[in-house]
Amino acid sequence: MPAKRPNNPARELLFGDLWEFDPAPETADPNIAPRYQLFINGKFTAPKSKKYFDSISPRNEAKVSEIAHAGDSDVNAAFEAATAAFPKWSKTPGAERGKYLYRIARLLQDRAREFAVAETIDGGKPIRESRDFDLPMSAAHFFYHAGWADKLDCAMPGRRLEPLGVAGQIIPWNFPLLMMAWKIAPALATGNTVVIKPAETTSVTAMKFASILQDAALPPGVVNIVTGARETGAAIVGHPAAAKIAFTGSTAVGKWIQRELAGSDKRLTLELGGKAANIVFEDAPIDQAVEGIVNGIFFNQGHVCCAGARLLVQESIASEILHKLKLRMRHLRVGDPLDKNTDIGAINSLAQLQKIRDLVQGGIRQGAEIFQTECRLPKKGFYFAPTLFSGVSSSHRIAQEEIFGPVLSILTFRTPEEAIEKANNTPYGLSAGVWTDKGSRILKMSAELKAGVVWANTYNKFDPASPFGGFKESGFGREGGKQGLLDYAKLA
Ligand code: NAP
Ligand code: MG
Which of 155, 279, 384, 443 is the most buried (most CB within 10 A)? Predict the structure, then answer.
């Protein structure tokens, strides 16, 4: 029997009597091992540290697997393997390197369903997103870079691209497999070898990916995966054999890494936080804009560095947008991420849930007006109702700090100049959205917004051919496209 819903006038207005979806859980076997070792020199290797930690599922707090905790000597062994593999791999003809990348892409496609379920269980994102976004995009990055591997001579006319050596790579928990693909694919295409660390709360798909590398017969040592916590990351950053550090994560850790590497000849790219403005002008297609706003902030529970977390709406349409947005938000389903009907899954960890709660409390204390949809959150697991704040001013914490959760702050503006000033008024500069009917306005706004990516009349669109990266405290360096390739090469 479907459970009775609380009285909800908006739902009744749209659908007549109350209705409810039946549960539709995804059933593919995620094939998760009870324990994962490190992946060093092509083999699963027990950590010399002898330590393991639990990975739990944010969907119900159940233990998912035990993960090896790499200590300094394990990180050392990974760098030794990557250093030993570098001479041969870097001299392997591009067409041959490309074949490995194609093989990895196809194996990922073959096992996409299994990987999607594992990603959702370990990280909490809705199965619809891991199935329709994370997995296809991860494969797409390998396909795209496979295509570059034998065409590097064409990337910069008259110049040759040479690999850097061993790349040390550190990634966050919001798109675990996809961030791994963003890091590994360009590094291998350009002939580098890799030591990579996934985030502590989301190592499962990284270790499943190691089995794909084995199946693809990638030469031992070309990719080494060391799981662990922040000390493991710090050991990668400080390792003398790293020719480059590629980091995606918080601005605070990014700044620390930059200080650590100051004065060394290591290359560095940083993909850090954001607080994007999604700007809606009065001539915008309103209904599409509302969909874009919802997608911009609620995709992946708002755990998105480029999330449209600040809605800047022109004053003349503010009340209409707010009304339609609230209606639309009432139809977002929050709950078990393994259910195919779920729009908003679980918050990745208890620590992140606490951070979201604190910032939301701060927003209420500073006087912004809160709206949350009525929804029954599961009793077990980490969940947060979709939230918006209106009456926000630029000085509020919720307008300045990255919340990294399903929380939207709404500000208003009168003129394009005011929109630009407000949009640029943060330490970040990763992304922005512009909704308007006028092409000239889109061009003007994109030129004046200090953001690495500007979407026009859409949001959260990605393509491996399109470079992604930030300005200001959102970092430097690009991932994807030719620019991303150049960040893994020196020009000769
Ligand atoms: P985080 O705390 O900075 O962690 C990111 C990664 O760095 C994790 O693997 C983490 O390991 C590791 N780490 C932590 N301290 C370290 C240290 N001192 N030295 C070396 N590595 C260290 O960030 P997060 O909270 O996991 O991720 C969310 C942040 O990432 C957000 O700010 C978001 O905007 C940003 N992000 C940016 C992009 C982008 O492309 N610009 C994409 C996604 C996310 P543990 O997990 O084991 O602590
Ligand atoms: Mg987990």
Answer: 279
